[in-house]
Fold Roadblock/LC7 domain-containing protein.
Amino acid sequence: MSLKDTLNGTIVHVEGALAAYVMAYDGIAIDEVVKSDSGFDLQLLSVEYATVLRGIKRTVEVVKAGQMEEVIVTTSSLIVIMRVLNDELFLVLIMAKDGNFGKARYMLRLKSFELLRQLG
Amino acid sequence: MSLKDTLNGTIVHVEGALAAYVMAYDGIAIDEVVKSDSGFDLQLLSVEYATVLRGIKRTVEVVKAGQMEEVIVTTSSLIVIMRVLNDELFLVLIMAKDGNFGKARYMLRLKSFELLRQLG
């Protein structure tokens, strides 16, 4: 299975999922699946959130709170779940506010192992 | 009831909760309740996370993803849940990794209304 297949497998099982990306911390997408036109600039969003994640990674190191694993940002319109894959890459799921949040977190955790095998 | 009582009411009902803060975006704690000695510098952590939250607030505005509501950072040791109260203040709950995550989110949402009434 390709990375794209795995990303697709992530979003088809999550109600409300709009897009999934494997991204590098510099904001470059390694692969992506965008489900439908959401009316948001998801590309811009994932690039900007890569910067956010770099900042949090630094903070977590400063406060000695272990290794960063997951960051979730909820706004009035969207939920963005980012899951660290390794030192270079992370997985992003963008979903509608009323999507299935619990399932999204579960699927990301599950698929992150699969993606790491495919990337390794 | 005081702010401290409400903060205390938040953490006593959440298994694994270590501390709760009402904080300003500049990193100054308005009030706080620390449950027990966790071995982490929770004060430093909450100050550093205020900076993180300011960064995310800017990003959310740039990408036009609505209003920031909640940010959750999970590391290998801790879960930090931050919930926006208004333009100046936010609520932070720091909990152990194996704490009751669902209950924590629910309690923060619930208590944020109570805190806003007390602050208003």
